[in-house]
Amino acid sequence: MKPLKLVAVSAGLSQPSSTRLLADRLAEAARRHLAEERATEVRVVELRDLATDIANTMVTGFPGAALREAIEAVTEADGVIAVTPIFTASYSGLFKSFFDVIDNTALAGKPVLIAATGGTARHSLALEHALRPLFAYLRAIVVPTAVYAASEDWGTGGDDRTEGLAVRISRAAEELADLVLRRPAAAEPIDAVIPFAQQLAALRP
Ligand SMILES: Cc1cc2nc3c(=O)[nH]c(=O)nc-3n(C[C@H](O)[C@H](O)[C@H](O)COP(=O)(O)O)c2cc1C
């Protein structure tokens, strides 16, 4: 059986990047859950390296080789982890532009885990008011747990009221793995549509 393909898209800009770190932690957790049933290949797409190509594609409509390859990887993935830094209370422009240049049917029916990093925990709901609707529009199957990591979340374990980052990562990754494993294999294309009258005729005694 072919290994499953998991693609993590990181729109982090800094080096090192907390967004990339979150993407790596989520991808590793999902790979571990999937590995209980299927071998899984993980690939990380760093949008920082594709920024110029993405901007050119917005203007010309023609992606360069590296961007084309990244788009293919996302389109063919069994599951996608999409992670953005929060800029001005929403996803970053680079993150949005990448999903703007992908065909708007490429994610249909595909399990997607959404995640974000931010300077303040106050903007965690950007996942619900910005990222979830974006992927709903693209008809992706978005996992219920969205993961937000504010600066103060790194290295802390949560408290009585809030779960720590590690717990949220593990829960979201498990939800993604469950969706990926339950997803039916792509259906064979239907060659010919049998006319309704012919189907009815076949039922007559
Ligand atoms: C232009 C800009 C706007 C930002 N706006 C917000 C914001 O509205 N809310 C927030 O929580 N953090 C905001 N931040 C902080 C980043 O989300 C945060 O530093 C992020 O984790 C950086 O990710 P990186 O380390 O992968 O580059 C902003 C940062 C920049 C550069």
Account of the protein in words:
α1 crosses α6 and α2 packs across α4. Strands 1, 2, 3, 4, 5, 6 and 7 form a seven-stranded mixed beta sheet that branches. This protein has seven helices and seven strands; from the N terminus they run βαβααββαβαββαα. It has a single domain, classed as Rossmann fold, CATH 3.40.50.360. By secondary structure, it is of the alpha/beta class. The chain binds flavin mononucleotide. Flavin mononucleotide (FMN) binds next to α1, β3 and β5.
Instruction: Classify the secondary structure makeup into a structural class.
Output: alpha/beta
Shape: globular
By CATH, the topology is Rossmann fold
- As for the number of domains, it is 1
Q: In the CATH classification, which architecture applies?
A: 3-Layer(aba) Sandwich
Query: Given this structure, which CATH class is correct?
Result: Alpha Beta
Spatial extent as radius of gyration: 19 Å
Contiguous low-pLDDT stretches (5 residues minimum) are none
- Give the integer mean of the pLDDT values: 93
* Total E-strand runs: 7
Write the layout of secondary structure elements.
Elements lengths: L3 E7 L7 H18 L4 E7 L4 H10 L4 H12 L2 E9 L2 E2 L1 H9 L9 E8 L7 H12 L3 E2 L4 E4 L14 H18 L13 H8 L2
Parallel strand pairs: 1-2, 1-3, 3-5, 5-6, 5-7
Antiparallel strand pairs: 3-4
Bound molecules: flavin mononucleotide.
